[in-house]
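Reply to dn_fold:

You asked what the input looked like. This is it:
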Amino acid sequence: MNDPRPEPAPRLLIVSYHFPPAETVGARRPAALAAFAARQGWDVRVLTAVGANQGTVPVPVPEEQLIRVAPSPRLPRPGRSGGGTATGGGGGAASRSRLRRIRTGADRLLVKVGMELLLPDPQLNWIRPPVRDFDRAAAGWCPDVILASGPPFSGFLVAATLARRFRAPWVADYRDLWSVGNDHWVRTALRRAVDKRLERRVLRTVAACVTVSEPLADTIHRTFGVRTHVVMNGIDRRPVPAESAATPVGVDASAATLTLAHTGYIYPGRRDPGPLVDAIALLGADAARVHVIFAGADHGITRAAAERAGVADSVTLLGPVSPEKSWRIQADADALVLLMWNDPRDAGTMTGKIFDYLQARRPVLLLGYENGVAARLLRERGAGVVANDPVAIASQLREWLTVKERTGRVPAVPAAAMDGLFREDQLGRYLDILREAADAGGPARRLVR
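and this is what came back:
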């Protein structure tokens, strides 16, 4: 006789240092998964370091389903030094003070030292508190499967420890790589070797790994012998702002007819605005008709490049802005700039920013590795161009200038470019992976040694 009682909802614990209301990009993937799983009937809890008052982004699940445990002891964090005040025209040099330069240098040194010496990352002070406090905070709730999202990879150690405690399988979600194939962070060969050994040890108990692109999945599988799946990031649905007739923020309408925008962090030595500003300089008299807005921390890199190229009048630096303002800037621009690393080692990086840009439906100018997955996506979707040589970039800028002069607007990217790329298009596959891990109930079979 069949039992008429319904199957209990699978219990999913998401371990993520970043989570709303924090505005960091690292919070978006775990937040989307938590919301999607809850809508599909899963019993979800989220273990995070972010406090309820540490941001303004809406929390996607009820607060009672969140277990917020602060890091302890507190470690120093470098301050933002990208220049929060809008600057443009010739005022860039005047606003750069000696104190700001000293602070920027000190922050960069602190980040470098922290990435080199703190194991596995500067968030190591979050490993012990959630492990120690989880049972009390969860009030008897225990998971069927645990998902840890990194970086930071301290969360992997938290998940592995809790998985042993509850005899539950855990899955490692790599938004970026840790010890191999990841050169965004400057580390010595010795430190990378230590990281690799620790990563291999942590992954001995993992049921499966998930990452955002095939090249990254191949790297994890070849290095650690763990079954690795691909679940891309996706476009987060949100209301599309109506086209604004106003001049984009920071732009002098009399000085520019083509507006480009870059939103997000600029990594020193990896995301270089230099070729773009050099291309503007190549436009000669037309340089005054091109303006680029940079919104986000950049360590003074953009200002220095613009001044060196003699096109400071063509650049506006807004510093860090809210997600809402970032979205408004994207929607109002004629075209969007995506800075990535022009190196084969970045072939597998599929930045979440590309999905924001796609929803804005403005054509994208990508400076980065031409054979990478991000470049391929833009070309296949007809959503932008890839160029790294200032001459080629200048040619594209002239083309957009001509189109805007003739029609008044650079054409929008077709809506069909977004087909199949929304977040929910990806997350159904994620729940299948988690359900399979929960049903198997143990570590994945080692594929290679």
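The CA atoms of residues 119 and 377 lie 35 Å apart.
Hope that clears it up.
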